[in-house]
Design brief:
Length: 295
């Protein structure tokens, strides 16, 4: 299915507190955020006209900005209201919201103390991140040659644009080899996450194992799935997981705002089944985001 390029779409984007025509939301070529990655963002899902976990996402946006030394010129309530406003203006019922914050073009060097902070929020209709047919039978991952950096070398607990460079490299490498995504290891060689989603494994007893998020994001969806699993009496084990341990797991799935709950059928030479437990968690998550059950 052909997709309209994002710079050719229509409607409005919330841009520094104004609603600007989609194709007129311009930034200067010499913006610091473009050259030096002084930029943070969020990814949010809209279900039935409402943004899921909006306050949690906005809180994380402000945390990311603070960690990057960026002071957002609005408060969290104003960003929440702007996010709601733009999905209403764009008439988005089931889609995506992308708030983004970056340093402008007043200074062009490593230092950016005097640069204006810009904020924009865009929203559009958007379906499944992975092909729905693939999600039914499970996607396939390779193991990336890139690793998540040591936590003392980057602001690892942020959604900062610079941290995603190796994710793009990893996903491109995976796709060139016929995989849908890539598993990334941490700086010590333990399993970390996929390129844009957290990961869970199911063992023979029905327990779920997931890496400790100490060098990568503790995703909002990840936390939701842990809560759902615990409510069902499923044991959650957060620990360091070595790649070779994948031979002992029978199931695997990814979690993320974009990925939602996506079953995995293969990682490198390791194979997994799309078992009933994973299907049940996915169904429960869909019920939660669409408010078919109590949150």
């Amino acid at each position: 299915m052909e997709t309209i390029p994002y710079d050719k779409r229509s409607g409005k984007i919330w841009f520094n507190s104004e609603l600007v025509d989609w194709q007129n939301t311009k930034i200067h070529l010499l913006s610091h955020g473009l050259h030096y990655a002084s930029c943070v963002f969020e990814g949010e899902r809209v279900y039935d006209g409402e943004i899921f976990k909006l306050e949690e996402h906005t809180k994380r946006l402000f945390h990311s900005a603070k960690r990057m030394g960026i002071k957002i010129p609005y408060n969290q309530k104003e960003i929440n209201n702007a996010s709601k406003e733009i999905i209403a203006v764009q008439k988005v019922k089931n889609g995506y919201v992308r708030p983004v914050v970056w340093r402008g073009s007043e200074m062009m060097a490593i230092s950016a103390q005097k640069n204006k902070i810009h904020v924009a929020i865009a929203s559009w209709e958007w379906g499944s991140y992975f092909d729905p047919k693939l999600k039914l039978k499970g996607i396939k991952l390779n193991i990336s040659s890139w690793r998540r950096p040591s936590p003392n070398s980057v602001p690892w607990d942020t959604k900062a644009s610079g941290l995603y460079m190796i994710c793009t490299l990893s996903k491109h490498e995976a796709e060139s080899k016929g995989f849908e995504d890539s598993l990334m290891l941490d700086h010590e060689g333990n399993i970390a996450e996929a390129t844009g989603a957290n990961i869970f494994f199911k063992d023979n007893s029905g327990s779920l194992h997931t890496p400790i998020p100490d060098s990568f994001l503790d995703g909002i969806t990840r936390r939701c799935i842990i809560e759902i699993a615990k409510s069902k009496g499923i044991k959650i084990i957060e620990r360091k997981i070595k790649p070779e341990e994948m031979s002992s797991f029978v199931g695997c799935f990814l979690t993320g705002t974009a990925a939602e709950v996506t079953p995995v059928s293969q990682i490198d030479k390791f194979n997994f089944k799309v078992c009933d437990l994973i299907k049940n968690l996915s169904e429960s998550y869909q019920n939660l985001v669409r408010k078919k059950v109590a949150a």
